[in-house]
Amino acid sequence: TADIVPQAPEDPLFGLMAAYRKDTFAQKVDLGIGAYRDDNAKPWVLPVVKKADKIIADDPDLNHEYLPIAGLQQFTSASQRLSLGADSPAIKEGRVASLQTISGTGAVHLGALFLSKFYKYSGQTPTGYFSNPTWANHGQIFDTARLSHKTYRYFSPTTKGLDFEGMMSDIKATPEGSIILLHACAHNPTGVDPTQEQWKQIAQVMAQRRQFPFFDTAYQGFASGDLNKDAWAIRYFIAQGFELCIAQSYAKNFGLYGERAGCFHFVTAPGSDAQSTITRIASQLAILQRSEISNPPAYGARIASLVLNTPELFAEWEANLRTMSGRIIEMRTQLRAKLEQLGTPGTWNHITDQIGMFSFTGLSEKQVLKIREDAHVYMTKNGRISMAGLNSHNIDYFAKAVDKVVRE
Ligand code: LMR
């Protein structure tokens, strides 16, 4: 075996993080990984998470027993309500199977594994279609699950917005029954989302083509600052009667990155046999989960569950979310203004048009590497920046570095 295992490349994003940490330059700027930072470039433990943490630590009944295979029930049911809406007919009709997962990655993985094993259309396992570009991990997760994948057009380099026509014509052209992976909100890496009107058209085409929507929702609360609005697309698709699945992460919106709290939901279409279908699906998901992780980790789910299920803590969480999304919006406004003041060649409206954690700056790979070398600014090669890495202390420095590299 030793001879036949080829050396794999380092993960680009985690490699970037390691390179940043090693850099000793005082003014270095980290715009790489999508993790929220405060105005001092420090990780931010949400105040509501600190509070929940203390309540849990003081609980005399706390123990470290195993969770059930599907995870903490109060957590998965609250996760359903958060994503599907508290008054969701799918929840009322008992046609949702939910399992706690190793954050969003684990949820995408569990979904991909399940589809790879059970989802057939005309006797074939359908291909997954991703937006071009998409989160760097989607491809390798599908590879691991032995699901083939291709892309549909999504981002227009010209407008730095959505290539809606390209997206629609590519989705129309995919084979019937294809799996279409959709970012529920705050698209990673582009920060470009369809409008509600566009979502309706996407749903219409996908219904005609009998396609299977696979939603990835890792930024609920980050796009509009409103949890319900950010779940609109998912709820609309469910209302249209799709069978679909959802991979939900609490890494960003709870700041629980390392605790790996997430949830996978499978929603069946309405119908008289929906409940028996979901029972069978849940039983198979449980076997996949058991064989992979046995049962999920408790800590992050306990925190999220306490907050999601306690009205006062929930309200405080919403305020914490507004603090994060508000600071990011402020950085967008300032960055655009600074580049426009500097007269940096090009247009910069996309910085404020795009939403969520990321901006797709339009900088080329060459410019990204140059800015890293000259100014010690770290961003991914595709020109994505994590807006949360900008703050009142480094935004001038960054704007000047962009100005310089664009003029070179
Ligand atoms: C990102 O895209 O930066 C985050 O989703 C972190 C990750 O795991 O890739």
UniProtKB/TrEMBL annotation:
Its EC number is 2.6.1.1. Its cofactor is pyridoxal 5'-phosphate. It catalyses: L-aspartate + 2-oxoglutarate = oxaloacetate + L-glutamate. PROSITE patterns: AA_TRANSFER_CLASS_1. Gene3D superfamilies: Aspartate Aminotransferase, domain 1, Type I PLP-dependent aspartate aminotransferase-like (Major domain). One of its GO terms (molecular function) is L-aspartate:2-oxoglutarate aminotransferase activity. InterPro entries: Aminotransferase_I/II_large, Asp_trans, NHTrfase_class1_PyrdxlP-BS, PyrdxlP-dep_Trfase, PyrdxlP-dep_Trfase_major, PyrdxlP-dep_Trfase_small. One of its GO terms (cellular component) is cytosol. Residues 27-401 form the Aminotransferase class I/classII large domain. It holds the Pfam family Aminotran_1_2. Belongs to the class-I pyridoxal-phosphate-dependent aminotransferase family. Homodimer. In eukaryotes there are cytoplasmic, mitochondrial and chloroplastic isozymes. This is Aspartate aminotransferase.
